[in-house]
């Protein structure tokens, strides 16, 4: 819930979602493909890339199996055919992706915006913050296909982006390897660091200066004999995130109210029962010079000690200190309110009643 809510605000802050679109490509009944379709994709990509009316960025998720990286806990288990392998998550990004999400480095530099793949040269990579414990700038590592990568930078801690087309919310980049994109191939999704126009377009987001400029892109794409090109508004994704957040908040509040009612009822019953069962002990306190205020404080201290322990544990396990503090203060006030029936019952009793009561 929190992740989607954060994504909604993050996305709205990054750019005007009403003027942003992502592309989904749906195959027509009769698949044609070939050079004609490749040219349409190339024309569409080039028109967007070279025209000042548009700002496009892309992010393509993948995994690479690294042979010689120092031992670390950042690799994840992924399926590869019938077996599973340990691989490191990568995110191939265009230069505008870095600018739109305002990514920052702790050291080094980002890869060159005009980077092009060359088979005998290293691919420059920017590593997530967590990799800084295991590698340094200018380190080179190799994947199982003998492709070499050179570390040119490290991201600052806590860098994130929003997955626009899938609406998955805010995604952290601490454990991710960023690689540049070179759109040069068509028939393969991923070959030697190069991406097809099709893969790029399906993972791209286009920001327009004027919403009506989307018509020019539709005019290019309409000649396709293979796909229907759908230009979907990012505003719909933001709406989905907002609606999903509101629904989650509603469910959360409903459960929270039930828990508060249940917990408050238990506190009231237990404190009233505590007073009933400990009249003789209270009478001893009164003989010793205590007042009903002292007895009331003793009742509240039992609840306060439990609250204090939970507050300390919450501070230890959570990094949201201000939220923990705010919620804890509210809970303490609720506990105090739940004790009121017991306090009222206690103060209505006459001292003589307390002294005469037996367990």
Automatic annotation (TrEMBL):
ABC3 transporter permease C-terminal domain boundaries: 254-318
One of the record's GO cellular component terms: plasma membrane
Compartments in which it is found: Cell membrane
A Pfam family recorded for this sequence: FtsX
Membrane-traversing stretches: 251-275, 295-317, 323-347
Membrane-topology descriptor: Multi-pass membrane protein
GO molecular function: transmembrane transporter activity
Keyword terms: Cell membrane, Membrane, Transmembrane, Transmembrane helix
Domain MacB-like periplasmic core: 90-219
Family as reported in the entry's similarity comment: Belongs to the ABC-4 integral membrane protein family.
The protein, known as: MacB-like periplasmic core domain-containing protein
Source organism: Pontibacillus litoralis JSM 072002
């Amino acid at each position: 819930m929190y992740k989607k809510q954060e994504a909604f605000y993050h996305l709205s802050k990054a750019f005007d979602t009403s003027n942003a679109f992502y592309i989904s490509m749906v195959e027509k009944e009769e698949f044609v493909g070939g050079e004609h379709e490749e040219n349409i994709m190339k024309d569409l990509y080039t028109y967007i890339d070279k025209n000042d009316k548009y700002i496009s960025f892309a992010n393509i998720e993948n995994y690479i199996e690294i042979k010689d990286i120092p031992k670390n806990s950042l690799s994840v288990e992924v399926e590869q055919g019938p077996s599973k392998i340990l691989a490191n998550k990568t995110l191939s990004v265009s230069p505008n992706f870095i600018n739109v999400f305002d990514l920052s480095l702790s050291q080094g530099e980002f890869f060159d915006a005009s980077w092009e793949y060359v088979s005998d040269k290293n691919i420059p990579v920017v590593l997530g913050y967590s990799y800084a414990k295991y590698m340094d700038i200018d380190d080179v590592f190799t994947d199982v296909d003998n492709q070499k990568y050179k570390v040119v930078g490290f991201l600052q801690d806590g860098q994130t982006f929003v997955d626009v087309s899938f609406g998955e919310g805010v995604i952290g980049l601490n454990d991710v390897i960023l690689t540049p994109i070179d759109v040069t191939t068509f028939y393969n999704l991923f070959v030697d660091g190069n991406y097809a126009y099709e893969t790029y377009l399906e993972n791209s987001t286009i920001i327009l200066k004027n919403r009506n400029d989307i018509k020019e892109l539709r005019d290019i794409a309409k000649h396709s004999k293979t796909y229907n090109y759908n230009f979907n508004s990012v505003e719909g994704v933001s709406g989905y995130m907002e609606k999903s957040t509101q629904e989650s908040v509603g469910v959360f509040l409903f459960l929270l109210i039930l828990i508060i009612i249940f917990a408050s009822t238990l506190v009231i019953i237990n404190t009233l029962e505590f007073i009933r069962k400990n009249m003789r002990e209270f009478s001893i306190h009164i003989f010793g010079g205590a007042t009903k205020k002292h007895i009331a404080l003793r009742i509240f201290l039992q609840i306060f000690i439990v609250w204090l322990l939970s507050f300390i544990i919450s501070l230890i396990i959570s990094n949201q200190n201000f939220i923990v503090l705010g919620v804890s203060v509210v809970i303490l006030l609720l506990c105090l309110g739940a004790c009121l029936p017991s306090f009222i019952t206690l103060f209505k009793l006459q001292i003589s009643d307390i002294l005469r009561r037996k367990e």
